[in-house]
Amino acid sequence: MTSLKPINAAVPKYGVGTQPFTVLIEGNIGSGKTTFIKHFQKFEDKICAMTEPVEKWRNFKGYNLLELMYIDPDRWAMPFQSYVMLTMLERHTKPTDKPIKILERSLYSAKYCFVENLHKGGLIHDGMYEILKEWYSYVEDITHIQADLIVYLRTTPEVVYERIRKRARSEEACVPLEYIKQLHELHEDWLIRKKVGCNIKVLEIEADLDLSEIDREYKRSENVITASIQ
Ligand code: DCP
After folding, report:
1. How confident is the model at residue 67 (pLDDT cuts 50, 70, 90)?
2. Is 25 helix (H, G, I), strand (E, B) or coil?
3. What is the average per-residue pLDDT within 65-76?
4. Which of 26, 52, 67, 104 is catalytic?
5. Domain-by-domain residue ranges, the chain?
6. Model's pTM, two decimal places?
7. Can you tell me the distance from the alpha carbon of 14 to that of 25, in angstroms, rounded to the nearest whole number?
């Protein structure tokens, strides 16, 4: 089988040298990524903090791709994940003059967790899965994805499931606990057991704690992140 490969390995990757120290915030659905990133907005002189483009996914030219993906995964999971890839790529490569960039999620969690989960669960056709894999591989071959640290908001599936139920995002009403458990295992395979992915440093945060207790965890990560530019 033929595979797309970079045309010329000597050509520098797109985006090389344009990105500052970059931190990826990862964790299961409902683990508190957006809240975590908002905490860093007070450092706006030093940190370019970008939350996830969920709103774009919920309204793409009038189509709610997130909802379509959950309602009709056979048809929509693949186009949804290809749009996620595009929106993530925009964020990975967007220039900033700040010395630190913090991103909610990444191409990597889409590839190692979400697409893998859809495929393992039989929700995405083998052929579509292979096309997405070719895209990831080609995009990573030709594009520089800066990633210096991953902050893993580590949770228990039952805790985030309860949070998801409470926040009641309409698209997620049909998400079962089993789906959250499988996503948890894939995050663990990637970030704790290191079965997949490259060797990016991981800072683990106890994210089962509720908002009143999580401040010390925020402080700990604040010290690690800001130390990177001292
Ligand atoms: N999603 C997906 N595939 C991806 C990324 C996200 O199917 N590659 C879905 C899962 C959720 C929604 O998008 O239904 C948003 O998920 P996130 O975990 O990325 O964001 P949350 O808003 O749940 O984050 P948090 O609650 O941690 O702030």
Report:
1. very high
2. strand
3. 97
4. 104
5. 21-227
6. 0.94
7. 23
Choose the residue to mutate in 31, 52, 57, 83 for probing ligand 1, maximizing ligand atoms within 8 Å of C-beta: 52
- Residues 15, 217: Cα–Cα separation, whole Å: 32
H or E stretch including 202?
strand 201-206
Residues in contact with ligand 1 by the CB-under-6-Å rule are 27, 29-34, 52, 54, 66, 84, 105, 110, 114, 172
Q: How confident is the model at residue 229 (pLDDT cuts 50, 70, 90)?
A: confident
Angle, helices 126-142 vs 73-93, to 10°: value is 10
How far apart CA 164 and CA 158 sit, in angstroms, is 10
Q: What is the mean pLDDT of the chain?
A: 93
What is the CATH T-level fold of the domain 21-227, as seen in this structure? Rossmann fold (3.40.50)
Helix axes 157-167, 177-191, angle to 10 degrees: 130
Where is average pLDDT lowest: 10-14, 23-27, 60-64?
Answer: 10-14
ipTM above 0.90, yes or no: yes
Q: Which of 37, 50, 51, 54 to mutate for ligand 1's pocket (most ligand atoms within 8 Å of CB)?
A: 54
Nearest to 153 by CA among 216, 227, 217, 196: 217
Does residue 116 carry a catalytic annotation?
Answer: no
The rounded Å distance from CA 95 to ligand 1 centre is 24
Atom of ligand 1 nearest to the CA of 35: 28
Neighbours of 7 (CB within 10 A): 9
Q: How far is the CA of 169 from the centre of ligand 1 (A)?
A: 11
The partner residues of 23 in beta bridges, in order of sequence, read: 102, 149
C-alpha pair distances (Å), 71 with each of 74, 163, 167, 227: 9, 21, 19, 44
